[in-house]
């Protein structure tokens, strides 16, 4: 184990906080899976769900380890081509998405032969953030022209979002917000950002009007998230009210210290208790202290991302850390805000804690790239340290040679004086 830890490169703080979040997830997932065990299997055995979650986490950490070995600038080279592949996957998902326990049919696809379901929007967001970071790092070399940036940057961004929007408004809004943050940090002109935001709002309003005028165009897709927003902003009862009510009961029941591990009551009534609403179960079982502890871990991870971005030796590295790290933390905040009804139900999971394979694996893939950036920083720092040591050793060698040459010259001078006494007299 010690040798394995020593072989881990990159920011040790990121490794530590990710490991703590993953280890903590075992108990809430094991506890919250009881309702799934009764509904899915009928025997109430949650051990299978725990083993499945452990396998997902194990595969996720394997992904982190493998990806962090790859130089991060390789992803810069393949980001543009990968975006086209993502568009194909998103289009296929929109048309042929699979139903999972009655969930939205257009978010997921099933991987052939192995039967694993996969949410393509998670991959799309990661590829898009790297693509935006690539453009901004390249555009820094020349002044940004808005017309050219529309073709090279914003059209690919909006095409990607257009494929995600009909089925998943929350993910679309999250990705668009993070892209805006990324371009702002990348010093894209603010006046151009304002134009893009205005265009996005107009496009969204136009899309909603079309969806309402032609409801058969997107059956059971657009209506879902439109109704969620309407129910959140009004007092109309809806299906989401039941989930929010149970989540708030769970949080209120937890109080300061919680009911204790595995003693949640609302997990038996709260849909998606092991994924979308797992934070409510955490607070119910571990109390306000447990909820604040989880929040602190995410904030500490954000702090390490900020440090990693600041230390990155290239603009692309800085933007990659921001583009892949910050959305992870923002998603966690959205998940917690939904549980306390600060936001409408979004379907966003709690990164590294909620159950689910593809979301964990994509999060781990992003973490692997971030750690690869920090690993490069360590390699550069080590090279500089080694170069300083070599320079110091070389300087010592030169000094020693000069001292030896001085000693030899002085010895020859004494010997010469001894052989030629007149030389000494003349010198006097």
Task: Give a written overview of the molecule.
It is a multi-pass membrane protein. The protein is built from 15 helices and 2 strands. It has 2 domains: 2-384, no CATH class; 387-427. The chain is globular, with a radius of gyration of 29 Å. The protein has a two-stranded antiparallel ribbon with strand order 1-2. The longest helix is centred in the C-terminal third of the chain and has 63 residues, at 357-419. The chain has 428 residues and is mainly alpha-helical. The protein has helices at 2-7, 12-32, 34-41, 47-67, 73-96, 120-139, 146-164, 169-185, 190-213, 222-233, 239-254, 278-311, 315-339, 357-419, 421-427, and strands at 108-110, 117-119.
Low-pLDDT parts are none
Count of separate structural domains: 2
Rounded mean pLDDT score: 82
Sheet with the most strands, sense and barrel status: 2 strands, antiparallel
Binned, the helix content reads over 70%
- Structural class call reads mainly alpha
Beta percentage is under 5%
- Given the C-alpha coordinates, what overall shape results? globular
Number of helices: 15
* Gyration radius, in Å: 29 Å
State the distance separating the first and last CA atoms.
77 Å
Widest β-sheet, arrangement of strands:
1-2
Order of helices and strands: HHHHHEEHHHHHHHHHH
Question: Summed up, what is this model?
Answer:
With 428 residues, the chain is mainly alpha-helical. It contains 15 helices and 2 strands. A two-stranded antiparallel sheet has the order 1-2.
């Amino acid at each position: 184990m010690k040798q394995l830890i020593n072989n881990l490169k990159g920011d040790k703080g990121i490794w530590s906080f990710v490991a703590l979040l993953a280890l903590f997830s075992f108990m809430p997932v094991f506890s919250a899976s009881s309702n799934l065990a009764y509904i899915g299997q009928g025997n109430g055995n949650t051990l299978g769900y725990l083993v499945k979650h452990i396998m997902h986490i194990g595969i996720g950490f394997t992904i982190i380890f493998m990806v962090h070995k790859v130089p991060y600038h390789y992803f810069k080279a393949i980001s543009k081509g990968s975006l086209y592949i993502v568009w194909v996957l998103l289009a296929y998902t929109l048309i042929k998405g699979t139903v999972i326990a009655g969930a939205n049919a257009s978010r997921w696809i099933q991987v052939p032969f192995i039967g694993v379901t996969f949410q393509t929007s998670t991959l799309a967001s990661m590829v898009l953030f790297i693509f935006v970071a690539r453009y901004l790092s390249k555009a820094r070399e020349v002044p940004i022209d808005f017309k050219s940036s529309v073709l090279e940057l914003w059209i690919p961004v909006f095409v990607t979002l257009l494929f995600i929007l009909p089925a998943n408004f929350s993910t679309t809004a999250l990705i668009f917000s993070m892209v805006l943050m990324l371009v702002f940090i990348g010093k894209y002109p603010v006046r151009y950002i304002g134009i893009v935001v205005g265009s996005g709002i107009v496009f969204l309003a136009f899309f909603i009007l079309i969806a309402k005028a032609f409801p058969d165009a997107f059956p059971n897709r657009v209506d879902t998230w439109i109704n969620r927003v309407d129910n959140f902003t009004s007092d109309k009862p809806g299906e989401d009210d039941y989930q929010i009510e149970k989540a708030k009961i769970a949080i209120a029941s937890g109080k300061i210290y919680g009911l204790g591990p595995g003693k949640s009551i609302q997990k038996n009534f709260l849909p998606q208790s092991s994924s979308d609403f797992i934070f409510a179960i955490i607070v119910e079982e571990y109390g306000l202290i447990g909820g604040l502890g989880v929040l602190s871990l995410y904030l500490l991870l954000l702090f390490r991302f900020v440090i990693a971005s600041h230390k990155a030796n290239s603009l692309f590295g800085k933007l990659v850390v921001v583009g892949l790290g910050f959305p992870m933390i923002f998603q966690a905040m959205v998940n917690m805000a939904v549980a306390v009804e600060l936001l409408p139900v979004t379907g966003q999971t709690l990164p590294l804690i909620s159950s689910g394979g593809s979301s964990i694996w994509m999060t781990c893939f992003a973490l692997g790239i971030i750690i690869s950036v920090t690993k490069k920083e360590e390699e550069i720092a080590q090279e500089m340290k080694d170069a300083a040591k070599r320079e110091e050793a070389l300087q010592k060698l030169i000094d020693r040679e000069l001292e030896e040459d001085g000693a030899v010259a002085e010895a020859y001078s004494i010997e010469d004086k001894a052989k030629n006494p007149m030389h000494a007299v003349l010198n006097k």
